[in-house]
Amino acid sequence: MKAKSLSFRLVVSEGLVLIAFFALVTLVLEQSFRESAEQALQERLQIHVYALLSSVDLNNSGQLKMPANLPEPRFASPGSGLYGFIQQPKKKNLVWRSPSAIGLDIIDPPKLKAGKSAFLLEKQKRYALHYDVVWKNIAGIEREYVFTVSEDAQFVTDQVQRFRATLRFWLLIIGVVLVFIQFSLLRWSLKPLRIIAHDLEAIEKGKKTHLDGEYPVELQGLAGNLNVFINHERAHLERYRNTLADLAHSLKTPLAILQGCTESFSDNKDTVQEQISRMNKIVEYQLQRAAAKGEQHAIKSVDLSDVIKKIRVSLAKVYIDKGIVFDIAIPEQCQIYCEEGDVYEIVGNLMDNACKWCHKAVKVSILLDQRKARRNFSVMLQIEDDGPGIPVGKFNDILKRGVRADQNIHGHGIGVSVVAELVGLLGGKLEGGESTALKGMRWSVYLP
């Protein structure tokens, strides 16, 4: 995986997010577990305090009397980790300490009210529970004592450390699994981009003509725009080739004449000059034609409906004597990706033919999202007239490149070969037939 690739960046960013998330989870869970362990220890120490209270007795002279056998054996074992103290807070006097606390520093209790307790972590790294009690014997003698039960903090620390080690181990395992899952999902999610890149490489090598794969909805617009761009570039290349072919064909006759005049140049000076002038005009015309159709501009969207409306106004003025009735069934706006000049050439030629050969009616309509020949097209432009139509068997002739206007039966097909060429280079489809509504000629232009 390359460092500058999109996959690498996504994996790294997701990994950093997971690390931050697991770090916060570790801190929160460790703190929660520590508090839970301390709470459990506090409850256990509270039980030990109650056990001491139940075991101790206050004699008639006001002195505490401790039993020989304590309720918890650990109080009797030195260094057991569980320690007990009984103090008089007002006199700051140690009344009793458990055998297990021999040699340890006395834990000073905080100021408490009778019946209150305090759970603290002492400097000696021991947790201590202090409980204040006021004791009154049968003789009416009243004494205040603080019962303190302490336990080493190492027990809680060991629990937290074991929990931390277990938690971090499993979070590491889960993190590795999640990164692997995310990497797999990322590879699966970015697979359509790799497919498009592979298809573009196939187009570059000439193995494909356009992007025809099954792409996700989010990439269909991109694939469509790329197909338009590819068809657009092919159209430019094909136009240059056709223009050069026309130029070469047009120059053959003047060159043949000039070749015949080389033997006697002085006698054919006017002829030579005439042919040179003619060749200059041919070259200028073909170069202008190539420049007009071959400039490489960024493809922009064109409003097909607006183009139709403008051409309709112009043709109404040109054919005002015929009083043509136009039936324009188009949406308010219809944006397509194409050069504006190409749109005017396609629509203008077909509508001009319809106006020229109709009797009184011309119908122009637009249908969106059409399917033809197992392909999906975004727009279908249909132009119909009530004229005589094209005789059977002559339709293919007018689509051939190089057929002149005066060679077409009944005049139909003026510019139609140019329209067919443009539509084909744009990846569309041109279809002709009889109009169902007007009984004349019908042209259907399918554009991607």
Automatic annotation (TrEMBL):
PROSITE patterns: HAMP, HIS_KIN. GO terms for molecular function: ATP binding; phosphorelay sensor kinase activity. This is histidine kinase. SMART domains: HATPase_c, HisKA. SUPFAM superfamilies: ATPase domain of HSP90 chaperone/DNA topoisomerase II/histidine kinase, Homodimeric domain of signal transducing histidine kinase. Residues 187-238 form the HAMP domain. GO terms for cellular component: plasma membrane. CDD domains: HisKA. Residues 246-448 form the Histidine kinase domain. Keywords: Kinase, Membrane, Phosphoprotein, Transferase, Transmembrane, Transmembrane helix, Two-component regulatory system. Its main location: membrane. Its EC number is 2.7.13.3. The keyword Transmembrane applies. InterPro entries: HAMP_dom, HATPase_C_sf, HATPase_dom, His_kinase_dom, HisK_dim/P_dom, HisK_dim/P_sf, Sig_transdc_His_kin-like_C, TCS_sensor_his_kinase. It is found in: Membrane. It catalyses: ATP + protein L-histidine = ADP + protein N-phospho-L-histidine. The chain crosses the membrane at residues 6-29, 169-190.
